[in-house]
Write a structure and sequence with these properties.
The complex is a heterodimer of chains A (142) and B (342). Chain A is of the alpha/beta class and 142 residues long. Chain A contains four helices and seven strands, in the order βαβαββααβββ. Chain A starts with a strand and ends with a strand. Chain B is an alpha/beta fold and 342 residues long. In chain B, 42% of the residues lie in helices and 18% in strands. Chain B has twelve helices and ten strands. Chain B has a five-stranded mixed β-sheet with strand order 3-2-1-4-5, sandwiched between helices. The model of chain B has no long low-confidence stretch (mean pLDDT 93). Classes of the chains: A alpha/beta (142), B alpha/beta (342). Chains A and B meet through helix 2, strand 3 and helix 3 of A and helix 6 and helix 8 of B.
Amino acid sequence: MNLPFITESSSVEDTIAIAEEFSDLLREGDIVALEGNLGVGKTQFVKAVCNYFKAGDAVSPTFAIVNEYSGRMKIYHFDFYRISREEELFDIGFDEYLMDDEAVLFIEWSNLFQDLLPKKLYKIKFSMMLNEKRKIEIVKNG
Amino acid sequence: MMNVLGIETSCDETSVAVINNGKLSSNIIASQDFHKDFGGVVPELSSRAHLQLIVPLLKQAIAEAELNLKDIDVISATAGPGLIGALLVGLTFAKGLSLSIGKPFIPVNHIEGHIYSGFLMDDKPEFPYLCLVVSGGHTLLLYVESDVKFYKLGTTIDDAAGEAFDKVSKMIGLGYPGGPLIQKNAEIGDENKIDFPIAKLKTDYDFSFSGVKTSVLRYIEKTYNNQPVPKEDLQDIAASFQKSVIGALVKNVEKALQNYKVKSISVVGGVAANKYLGEKLKTISKKYNKKLIIPGIQFCGDNAAMIAYRGSKLYEQGLRYELTYNAFPRFHSEFIATEMNI
């Protein structure tokens, strides 16, 4: 996969294929920021990455704030959706997760606390198109 | 006389309870019972909040049980699943207490606490029973054989049922907490007005609520073009959405009733407080002639009573744990059996 990468997904199967191709780029210590409204496929994308690394069956992290998976790769799956204040993230130990260079960190709704993120990261933007297709844009920052 | 202390700090609720030979002596829940002294406690994601609340809650729980600290025989606390920072407050506090008063420490699985929470009621479930765990973070269908053995029949593959309620509630402008607000609006709405389809899965007892959440979002985008949802339409959307989610839960319960021999059905967790779910399950339980146990509202949300109850059962079963027992973030249990011999 060459970045920046812009594509359209017209099905869950498409999204899984894109996620698998993206997984090949991932190395320990990488951070992936996921942006996009409810129901655009952020969790589905991480689920496919976890499957690719045989790290387990990922589900929505909204309630738990962070889920951990491990297989061929250790994956932290964060969700900022339910976070209301920056202090809550510090309290949870978000900075420690950020510094773990043995795992890949995925963050859903990362745009809610953009200032807390490092400059060097992958950013994946999901958006809904007409006709139920999803536009997926992957860029590498820093 | 055996007094078991329970401590719950797995997420945003702090709670301490005392149970005496299966009978609840006190159950103090910070967000519900602490308004007077603390000027209202809003649950927040903060270990610091747990830290500030735990000692006064313990004092109140012991006082309400009309006991002294030395009368406590067993100390139990939630070890997981949950937020590690939050869990550690209650768990470490319990270990310290155990060490200082020389009484055994029993770590409790939060989900197991919910699974057996029906036993806090006067009318109790009978083994084997079918248990539906529905909360903001979990959706599980289980066959519960005994105090120390249960089978997982299905779970959510994406969002939890309670999460779908919260997200849709926020989406249509009703706010938080989603469960009670959707239910209230649904009561006066037309549940057949809009079709919000539930994803069909290949497995028998799993759930998926991400699709229905998305279809509500599509509907309001399409219908209202990013304008707020008019008040008169809110009730119909809430009712149609609720019908869809509850319908999916009830459908799997009914399927399980047809395939497994059980004596009772127990629905637990925050969403168990939903009246529409209760009514639908009442109909099903009558149809299949099963006893239906839904814990009282004080035992549906996160509470320490269920932790103390579970702790007392594990202690009775002869289980003992070291103080080195660690907190764990994700749901797993030593009591889940993988093969079902029925």
